[in-house]
Write a structure and sequence with these properties.
about 270 residues, alpha/beta, TIM Barrel, eight-stranded parallel barrel, 9 helices, 13 strands
Length: about 270
Amino acid sequence: MFDYLKSSPNFFLFAGPCVIEGEKMALDIAETVANVADELNIPYVFKGSYRKANRSRIDSFTGIGDIKALEILKKVKQELNIPVVTDIHTNEEAALAAEYVDILQIPAFLCRQTELLVAAAKTGKMVNIKKGQFLSPEAMSFAVQKVRDAGNNSVAITERGTSFGYHDLIVDYRGIPEMQRNVCPVILDVTHSLQQPNQPKGVTGGRPDLIETIARAGIAVGVDGLFIETHQDPSVAKSDGANMLKLSKIGPLLRRLTELRHTVNNLTE
């Protein structure tokens, strides 16, 4: 998987909906992004959670059924010939999801869960660990080492902002090179970094108008990959719609970011 992600001088991309809502929506998003990524020489991984376990309210949407959603992820992988990534939340989920996907993602709030990290590592799949909103960049070295000590060197870290007060997140771009000291890919989760959590109504808010600002800054400091959640119509998305990018905007955005990456690469050569 590392060879694929590093196969281009461009950044690589994890992109897709927050959660799998159905087969047609997933295939449409994946195909749309894949076409642009192929044009721009961006190694692309389709992202979709088969189940959402961390919800603000008990009545929040969690998924369409585990196996049904995992089968959709498998279909995206097979029909479009692209790798896929999904979140896991328990040790048992690691083995289950590994049968369908290429990369297992550890949610930010679970990044210190030793048994979960070890279970993910032992599947042999690449493990992407999201940095907890409560952790320093330096502290992520211990999470990475847990995966490596379990016999799996295929590990990445994702920055998704640090808690700032009760209702906001801040991206400290000094953390990108710091986490790259672990000699593993570092990904910037653009859309989750723009969440506004813990809102009084129990639905997370967001600032999608700043997606390009956050992404440009990440490219400028040399992040290896970007993570962007996207949906045909974020206003009706069943999860995290407030901070997602409308699908029709992803092509123009990726073209501008690719131009910026080319400039940055030339400056560092």
